Amino acid sequence: MGAKKIVVISAGLGTPSSSRLLADQLADASVRRAAELGIETQVAVYELRDLAVDIANNFVTGYAAPRLAEAIEATEKADALVAVSPVFSASYSGLFKSFIDLLDHTALEGKPVLLGVTGGSERHSMVIDFAMRPLFSYLRAKIVPTAVFAAPMDWGQGPEGDSTLGGSLTSRIERAAAELVAELAEGTPAKAPRVATRPEDKSFEELLSDLTGRN
């Protein structure tokens, strides 16, 4: 059995970035948990900040530059995904959503996904349930139960942490990583055959073919 591929997507804009810091800790914990179970892993990290111009150009031209094409292909073929975004206007960032929009709409079906969010205060933690989960649920990803929100005060917490957010940041990271690795240990489920019985399930080309009678 080959190594399990974990792709990490960070949509932070700063340098250094709290989103990248959280993404790295989630990835490190996942690799460590996998090793404990004898699972070999390969991790690829993509900072969307570095791909922002290529992402914008792709929407205009329909062409993905080599670096962006690599990130898209790696994400679509990954065995698991760690996705981290900062909070922008009570939701994920536009850069984060733009990258997700470039993926094939079936690419994340059944794929284990660990969600992470960073924000200025714990009040922003609702972004996980009101924005991040609905997005990945729509894409039929297999979202692990524990998502990790990190506010500035979380980075300096002790081992007990804030009970309102489910314990310390470290404990939440470890729990989320364990859940992701548990999904990896079960193997990637096979996708069900895609049957486009509803108009909303069909691509533009399929709808056009239905109207014109051309294959």
Automatic annotation (TrEMBL):
<dbReference type="InterPro" id="IPR051814">
    <property type="entry name" value="NAD(P)H-dep_FMN_reductase"/>
</dbReference>
<feature type="region of interest" description="Disordered">
    <location>
        <begin position="188"/>
        <end position="215"/>
    </location>
</feature>
<keyword id="KW-0288">FMN</keyword>
<dbReference type="InterPro" id="IPR005025">
    <property type="entry name" value="FMN_Rdtase-like_dom"/>
</dbReference>
<feature type="domain" description="NADPH-dependent FMN reductase-like">
    <location>
        <begin position="5"/>
        <end position="155"/>
    </location>
</feature>
<dbReference type="GO" id="GO:0016491">
    <property type="term" value="F:oxidoreductase activity"/>
</dbReference>
<dbReference type="InterPro" id="IPR023932">
    <property type="entry name" value="CE1759_FMN_reduct"/>
</dbReference>
<keyword id="KW-0285">Flavoprotein</keyword>
<protein>
    <submittedName>
        <fullName>NADPH-dependent FMN reductase</fullName>
    </submittedName>
</protein>
<keyword id="KW-0560">Oxidoreductase</keyword>
<dbReference type="InterPro" id="IPR029039">
    <property type="entry name" value="Flavoprotein-like_sf"/>
</dbReference>
<dbReference type="Pfam" id="PF03358">
    <property type="entry name" value="FMN_red"/>
</dbReference>
